[in-house]
Amino acid sequence: MNDRVSDPLDSTRAPAEPLAPRRVRHVRDASVNLAHGSGGRAMRDLIEDVFVSTFDNPALATLEDQAVFPMAELASLGDRLAFTTDSYVVDPLFFPGGDIGTLAVSGTVNDLAVCGATPLYLSCGMVIEEGLAVETLRRVAASMQRVALEAGVAIVTGDTKVVERGCADNLFINTAGIGVVRRGVAISARHAQPGDVVIVNGYLGDHGAAILVARQQLALEADVQSDCGPLNGLIAAMLDACPQIHCLRDATRGGVATVLNEFAQSSNVTIRIREADVPLREEVKGACEILGLDPLYLANEGKLVALVPAQAAERVLAAMRAHPAGRQAAAIGEVEEGPGGLVVLHTVFGGQRIVDMLVGEQLPRIC
Amino acid sequence: MKYVDEFRDPHKAQTLKNAIRRLVDGIARAKQRPLQIMEVCGGHTHTIFRYGVQQLLPDEVEFVHGPGCPVCVLPMGRVDDCVALAERPEVIFTTFGDAMRVPGSKKSLLKAKADGADVRMVYSPLDALKIAQLNPQREVIFFGLGFETTMPSTAMTVLQARAQHIRNFSLFCNHITIIPTIKAILDSPDLHLDGFLGPGHVSMVIGTRPYEFIAQHYHKPITVAGFEPLDVLQSMWMVLRQIAEGRCEVENQYGRIVPRDGNAQALSAIQQVFELREFFEWRGLGSIDHSGVRIREAFADFDAERKFEVPNLKIADPKACQCGEVLKGVIKPHECKVFGTACTPESPLGSLMVSSEGACAAYFNYGRIDTSRIERRGGASGSGRAGNAGGLGAASGASVAKPLMVSGDETVSQAIEGGQAV
Lengths: 367, 422
Fold this sequence. Notes:
- The complex is a heterodimer.
- Chain A is of the alpha+beta class.
- Chain A has two domains: 24-181, CATH 3.30.1330.10; 189-354, Phosphoribosyl-aminoimidazole Synthetase, Chain A, domain 2 (Alpha-Beta Complex), CATH 3.90.650.10.
- Helices cover 29% and strands 22% of the residues of chain A.
- Chain A is built from ten helices and 13 strands.
- In chain A, the strands form three sheets. A seven-stranded mixed sheet of chain A has the order 8-10-7-11-9-12-13, sandwiched between helices. A four-stranded mixed sheet of chain A has the order 1-6-4-5. In chain A, strands 2-3 form a two-stranded antiparallel sheet.
- By secondary structure, chain B is α/β, with parallel strands linked by helices.
- Chain B has two domains: 5-69 and 180-256 and 322-414, Rossmann fold, CATH 3.40.50.11750; 76-176 and 292-307, Rossmann fold.
- Chain B has helices spanning 10-25, 42-51, 76-86, 109-114, 125-134, 151-163, 178-187, 200-206, 212-216, 229-245, 264-273, 304-307, 323-327, 359-366, 368-381, 386-395, 412-417; strands spanning 35-41, 61-68, 91-95, 119-121, 139-146, 169-175, 195-198, 222-224, 250-252, 274-276, 279-282, 286-289, 293-295.
- Chain B has a five-stranded parallel sheet with strand order 2-1-7-8-9.
- In chain B, α6 (151-163) links the parallel β5 and β6.
- In chain B, α6 packs across α11 (264-273).
- Chain B starts with 9 loop residues before the first helix and ends in a 5-residue tail after the last helix.
- Classes of the chains: A alpha+beta, B alpha/beta.
- At the A-B interface, α9 and β13 of A face α1, α2 and α14 of B.
């Protein structure tokens, strides 16, 4: 079963009359200045040259203040709408394995997908610091479009603001998205059941480690790439294998530890995980050892945690391993009755400890 | 991971667990009350909780989490001084990450940063020196703290700053030294310690000889221990073996890193740059003579305390806070009146709740499994907590350690060598 729309761009070909051919305008400046946010010609040039031409879809090309799409099309995919928004601020803008653009699209796509929704349309709000190179903006827009195509979504409406130097850090992006939830799927952090198997789709902490290394404050050299990418294809395959997945979340900020704590609290259960089964790359382990960080709390941008009924666990794992985003999928623990809100880790060493919510930022230890 | 996984091998852990069980069965004292072994270093505390090492020990053996977390023993007045320095408009204040959250009387460095101070996290004092070179118009202060582990790198940085004529760099020195502190703990009247795990990385610098007074004068066994869980477990076995055999010696489990005489180059850098202070204030422990170092006159230009005015006010620890008793092992973290209620990692009252190496934060974050085990044990037989209950009573009358008197004008290396002055 695959109920994703083959081409979400088709459904937005709303205008009956063909678009009049228009001369594509180009930005002449090398960097963005306040005029590009003023609402005048400079702004229009920037939007057309950088965003409309890159995101390349008819809904956006009309340059209306909104995107319009038919409801019948949405209704054919499921019975509920899912709607989400997220803002992306990352330093540096470009890092091994991705950039702020890949984050902005895959993050919002994933937030829709983890409730069982088929993501369809995204908005894109750009807050640009004066002085940002136009070339940088082009690279980011191209990344966004690449991930959008991979995820099968369209960026159909947007907004551009330019702020004075010092009022933003290069570039902030907000994306909102809508998707349609499959019939019969009921995923919620409140649905964990004793006996459920805890599954992750691969190596944890890659994104967090890649960002740490990319900031170059550490003089650490490690070949770690961010795992940044859309998960909707993988999740569709998981739901095909088992529509009754109980809990599903992407483990972004706060990492897998935070997601497990949210599940344990919302469902009033204890979750036990086995350190030995947690997939970690050697490089990430090494960086964590040096810095005294716990990889369970490192951010991911292409990793999910699922709580799956025990009898379906093997089936779901097999479906995941057959998908490129789930090759290293692993069962790392179980849900059991017991004190609500408790996550317990069985250490490789044979002891056990509580894995709690993080307080504030993880700060590297002194020695 | 190579050279790491070997030290976390669960099968070897089981072997050690069984060996410890057999040793403890032969120790008569353990039948009256649990044997208390203090791990001096915060790094060990972290390992113990992170890997659940306590759960591999028999009920008759307890870890007492000592004062070796430099972030945790920092008094409020010194944090206030940091904030005052950081809030000067010309200053870039640089610090290790985990010192950012330590509460001062008004705010932490993290809060000062949010309020507009230029506070930057660095991973080494040399990073701070680089910042100074890149910002010649600003004054860059490095917040130097830690035991002998971090002292050499700070000393080297000051030496480099002088060699390179970097005039806009200075050090706010809060380095402390381990030996007088261990002495103060040993002299504390309400103490029942049976032995020590010695700090590994401090010993890499100072060697193992400075601990000999612990065995000779105080008749307590000590094993210098590494930081992997197997290191800690093996060191525990070594200390218990000493107890079982009636020996009191300095043993070195961490021989792959720690030479008997320490690191001569590091010691020489320390000696060049630092001298002992008359006394230094510790959170929870009060003032301990000769337990801190300051920058020598010859390097006055690099001393933030001489270069800038600091308030230098003594701020009393919060009344409800029992960090001192926890540090000395008189009570366990969860037995503190405010543990988990007024004092949590989110809003720490005492410094032991701040750093992941602090005993209270470790208990709170990782250790509630141990706590419930201890409570069950206490409830079932009543005997498990007898030692602690007695300690609590004794502690209420003596919340600050008796100041330790060290006579004469000791040098840093004498203090590090320790022993003979007592």
